Amino acid sequence: MNGRKKQIIFEKLIRLLLAGFLCPVLFAQGIPRSTGLGFRGGFWKINNQVMGVHVGTSGLNSSVRVEGAGGSLTFFSRLHQNWFIESSLGSVANVNVEEKNLFDEDVRVSVTIPLLVGVRFDLLSSRLESKIQPYLCAGTGTYWLMDTAVEDHGFMDEEVSTESDFFFGGYVGGGSHVTLASWFALDFITQYHFVDFSKSHPKSGFEFGMGFCFMWGRKREIFKVKEVQVIVPDIYPAYYRFYNSYPLAMATIENTAGFPIEVNLRSWIDGYTDGVRQSGFIEIPKGETSNIPVHLLFGPDLLTVENREPAVIDLEIEARAGVTLKKSFSAQVVMHSRNAWNGEIDKLTVFVTPDDPEILELSRSYLKADTVAEAADPMKLHQARILFDALGTKGLTYQADPNIPYDRDDRVQFAPKTLSLGTGDCDDLVVLVASLFESVGIRTAFVDVRDPQTPQGHVYLMFDTGLSPDGIGRITGNEKRIVIRENASGESTIWIPVETTLIQAGFETAWKTGATQYMEEAVLRQGLEEGWVNVIDVD
After folding, report:
1. What is the pTM of this model?
2. Of 456, 444, 238, residue with least CA distance to 341
3. How is 109-159 classified by DSSP, letter by letter?
4. CB-CB contact of 452 with 460 (8 Å)
5. Which of 50, 71, 331, 404 makes a 20 to 30 Å CA pair with 26?
6. Strand locations in 428-504, DSSP E?
7. For range 176-192, the mean pLDDT
8. Among residues 287, 269, 425, 434, which one has the least CA distance to residue 349?
9. Which CATH fold would you assign to the domain 223-335?
């Protein structure tokens, strides 16, 4: 065999073997990516042939046979759950080189090039987590057969002949993956190829191969987050106790597995929450969708927020069913300042702080300084009068909130702040008076007026004297100056309306004005009945 012929044969063998090592492995249970490309090499046990590499010599004669060496390149993509589709382009070669003497040699190369499309099915449920994952596969396509013979008799006497043909066929088989990483795995496979859909075809036979693949794309899902809907887009620090029991968002989660799963939702806001709040594992039946509320864990530190600023709710959703998968999401909200109020009267009660040390000290010092030996009024009415008039001596005045164009929220001062500033609007002053009254055990309520005939709303206070309706004579001879209300236990007691913006005018004037307003707006103009006057208990 001359040097040129040896080089040609060697190059052909290298090309055939390199082509045979290009092969993918399909996505198996242990490989969590949806798309991939891989490489596989091996041997085909073709009918009436012994696969492998054979070398022989006899005198001046020598031979080299490579039978069934090959491989393929395949691309795969997930169809649904354990089902995947693949397309492959491969090759398998039989090479026979015989050198009969110093001048004669025969080279015969037979190449089969399969172009196939098939499907693969993972045998193990996604509940099981295993490094070794078995699968079954099947497909169909074309087999291009090409035979080339080269006879060299020396002295440039060379004969070359080539024949080719196409056949349709199919394959069935199985294999197993060994997962080394989420993006990489080894593959071992055994398949039987039916060329021309015939087991007796000379090119039909078994394929034994191994290789590796690289994966990318989405991980296998056992659940899908269809939507994260924000229920409370604006967070007001003063309402932090309310938020601890009320969902701020709702996560809609669909079970895409063929079996029940359990889902746990973790939520937090960096820099604002006191830790991570968990929903606990909630079971979602197969194929169903569940709405899981998103709760957050807030504490008093939220009251240190001074400015309105954006914030992000971070969500980590964990699902388990043998395997455990996690997904992260986020939702945008707005964190308002500690003094912000959205105008809902029932939320104004959160600004009332009867247990504030400064308020407790102030109310007790006012009552301690009371020099009246024996008051004619009932105790709670007497205490309310003392506290209200004492505030008037501090020079508190009414002052509207500043106009902040970019922030439509109302602004409410906590009681100590109103005391230090010496001014406040109607909601600031009603919060201050309610805080003082509640600190000595006097129950209070807000009277919220949203008169349709005026552009602005108003709020003032009423408090519980603790007297039953038959004790009205101990308070006043005018029934229009009081309000009969039922307490939580269903008992009717006498309440007194007070216009808190008239602190400097004194308790009697504030009482008279408050009673007149209530009679006119709530009763005569039927504000209570029509819903534009509402009374909300502070506690």
Report:
1. 0.64
2. 238
3. EEEEEEEEEEEEEE-S-TT---SEEEEEEEEEEEEEEEEEEEEE-STT-EE
4. no
5. 50
6. 444-449, 458-464, 483-486, 492-498
7. 88
8. 434
9. Immunoglobulin-like (2.60.40)
For the ranges 143-147, 174-178, 408-412, 438-442, the lowest mean pLDDT is seen at 408-412
- How high is the pLDDT of residue 9? 47
Q: Are strands 458-464 and 492-498 parallel, antiparallel or unpaired?
A: antiparallel
Q: 271-313 pLDDT, tens per residue? A: 999 999 999 999 999 889 999 999 999 999 999 999 999 999 9
Task: Name the CATH topology of 344-537.
Answer: C8orf32 fold (3.10.620)
Instruction: Check residue 495 and give its pLDDT.
Output: 96
Residues in the chain, total: 539
Helix H or strand E segment including 56: strand 52-58
Both tokens of 420, joined, read 């230090």
Nearest to 117 by CA among 91, 134, 137: 137
- Cα 450 to Cα 457: distance, rounded to the nearest angstrom: 5
235, amino acid identity: I
Q: Look at residue 16 and tell me whether its pLDDT is greater than 60.
A: no
Lookup: tokens for 346: 């029932």
Contact 504, 394 (CB under 8 A): no
What is the rounded CA–CA span in Å between residue 517 and residue 533? 11
At 25, the pLDDT band (50, 70, 90 cuts) reads: very low
- What residues does each domain of the chain span? 3-218, 223-335, 344-537
With helix as H, strand as E and coil as C, how does 394-443 read?
CCCEECCCCCCCCCCCEECCCHHHHHHHCEECHHHHHHHHHHHHHHCCCC
Q: In CATH, what number does 3-218 get?
A: 2.40.160.20
- Mean pLDDT is lowest, of 62-71, 176-185, 329-338, 509-518, for 62-71
The per-residue DSSP string of 501-536 comes to GGGGG-HHHHHHHHHHHIIIIIIIT-HHHHTSEEEE
The predicted pLDDT at position 59 comes to 61
